[in-house]
Amino acid sequence: MIVTIEEIQNEIIDEFSMFEDWEERYQYMIDLGKELPLINDKYKTDSNIIKGCQSKVWVHAEMKDDKLVFTADSDAIITKGIIAILIRAFSNQHPKDIIDAETDFIDKIGLKEHLSPTRANGLLSMVKQLKLYAIAYQTQLK
Amino acid sequence: MFDVESIRKDFPILSRKVNGKPLVYFDNAATSQTPKQVIDTIVEYYSKYNANIHRGVHTLSQEATDKYEQSRKKIQAHFNAKFSHEIIFTSGTTHGINLVANGFSSILKKGDEIIVSALEHHSNIVPWQMLCERTGAILKVIPMDLEGELILSEYDKLLSPNTKLVFVNHVSNALGTINPIETIIEKAHAVGAAILIDGAQSSPHIKADVQALDVDFYVASAHKMCGPTGVGMLYGKESWLKKLPPYQGGGEMIAEVTFEKTTYAELPHKFEAGTPNICGGIAFGAAIDYMNTIGFEAIAAYEHELLEYATAKLLEIEGLKIYGPLKDKASVVSFNLEGIHPYDVGSILDKLGIAVRTGHHCAQPIMDFYKIPGTVRASLAFYNTKSEIDALVEGVKKAKMMLS
After folding, report:
1. Which of A135, A137, A140, A114 lies closest to A57 in space, CA to CA?
2. pTM assigned to the model
3. pLDDT digits over A66-117, tens only?
4. Is the peptide bond before A117 cis (omega within 30 degrees of 0)?
5. Catalytic-residue membership of A45
6. Residues spanned by the domain of B145
7. ipTM of the complex model
8. Which residue in A5, A29, A50, A53 is the catalytic one?
9. Which of B343, B350, B402 has its CB closest to that of A54?
């Protein structure tokens, strides 16, 4: 069964549409953040830190078969929840599909405020970083 | 009697809602809100006498020049400078610091020493590092203790005849610590060093008397004192300002220009190249008038009451730790919940309409000292209320519940 990034994103949008208010939305993200041990500690290196984040964010990427797999972590739990959502949407996909993927689902699930540069939580940097990894691995594939 | 409800009516922004909740603004140390008296001054400037200053013979230019220079005199009177030409308009505290640092690059020699404190804002460290790179001078740091106070016995050890400049903030932006600047100034002068005090965080709470302090330079920003952003002041003793070379070249700062030689204008214009933030400068004066109408003693007393209330209420929350001094500080509470990242707390508080600052507050060395990624900082102003503090406390409890 092949599940596309778009399908996963739509699934996430559906899930978030069930929440009545910000509290439920945030509680869900916090729970996602708590659940996931996201990265092997050996990848929590300075070179894997995404710059421009108020909370620390580490992202590691590796190819498994022909798919790009992301693992990540943060020291802030809401940020971690956001990462969990991003990883669900973008990990285990072909680099080309990651490069081409739209990112407006973040708006649609009511996390737009986390995109603001003033938040400095780096959601924007995170998305950019995932795409950069995809571009790098895509270049290697060629 | 201090009537906070009537004061709040002066601030249009305080009646707005954020995320459907009444705004609770506790980020005053980053920027203060603007009363209608200052907003009206800005509107009046652009509606009635917007013109370039110090050059036009026409009426608008003269009116604008008069207002701008009146504002300089208000700032002079407020900080009790001896002469109005000792007040230089800047774009803000950072500009003032850079102006002094740049001036000292022609004075310092290799091996000279500059002393700064461990409680500084980034902007207070970088210009001196740059100055040291340019001149070969050495930067020394007065360390702090766990209570967030400077260790003065260490300061004594750093001082020597090599010390040429000491630079300390009056109040720490991250912790609210009030530094004993009288002693720090006296000791700097005892070894013949000049001293610059950063008043950005103190000027909204404490009225500084530059002559009584005998300080050589003092800097502040209008936007922390109910004024607009993009304007600030540098006070410098006349003798020092005459000694320092101009910072930037341009219009306003020259007396005569030929291709062979330029003679510089007299103070304060020597340091005010180009068209300044005229409206901002005038509004700065209006902001000082506004704060003086309320009165700094009344402001300090009320803010102290708020601070004590906030400290006591917040400390009732289990696992909440306050950084820096608990008493005798400016109205800043910098705290963390045990095991919870300040960013998470700030995000939840924002959802509740409560504006706080989270992060390292541009004071990373202080955060490194405490080995924390940052803090949640609530900075209180005279227009805040106890019921807003109650909202903050409830918000922090809610954040704790959601996040732990």
Report:
1. A114
2. 0.91
3. 999 998 888 889 888 888 899 999 999 999 999 999 888 888 887 766 655 5
4. no
5. no
6. 51-293
7. 0.86
8. A53
9. B343
